[in-house]
Amino acid sequence: MSRRCEVTGARYLAGNKVSHSNRKSKKRSQTNLQTKRVWVPEESRFVTVRLTTRALRTLDRIGLRRAMAKYVGASS
């Protein structure tokens, strides 16, 4: 399973690790993914999703349906 947020699609960040002698090697910073059961009032049931902590705050603010429409609808 890929480490990707199911709502926003966020994945790892890539960059350079720079040593004291200024040598550069690639590094990856993983996203902070959490597994969460979210209540969907339209369907009267819980849904389990893997999302970033940032997306979790967005769900608290605007709800699952509006967040899915905002992020998934924009990329399609």
Please describe what this structure looks like:
This protein is an alpha+beta fold. It has two helices and four strands. The protein has a two-stranded antiparallel ribbon. Helix 1 crosses helix 2. The model has no long low-confidence stretch (mean pLDDT 89).
What's the helix and strand layout?
Layout: E1 13-18, E2 24-29, E3 33-40, E4 45-52, H1 53-62, H2 64-75
Antiparallel strand pairs: 1-2, 3-4
Helix pairs in contact: 1-2
Q: Provide the CATH topology of the domain at 32-76.
A: Ribosomal Protein L24e, Chain: T
The major β-sheet equals: 2 strands, antiparallel
Mean pLDDT: 89
Q: Work out the number of β strands.
A: 4
CATH class of the domain at 32-76: Mainly Beta
CATH architecture level-2 label of the domain at 32-76: Roll
Strand content: 35-45%
Q: Based on Cα principal axes, name the global outline.
A: elongated
Number of helices: 2
CATH homologous superfamily assignment of the domain at 32-76: Ribosomal protein L28/L24
The secondary-structure class comes to alpha+beta
Low-confidence stretches: none
The secondary-structure element order is EEEEHH
Radius of gyration: 16 Å
Biggest sheet: strand arrangement: 1-2
Spatial separation of the terminal alpha carbons: 22 Å
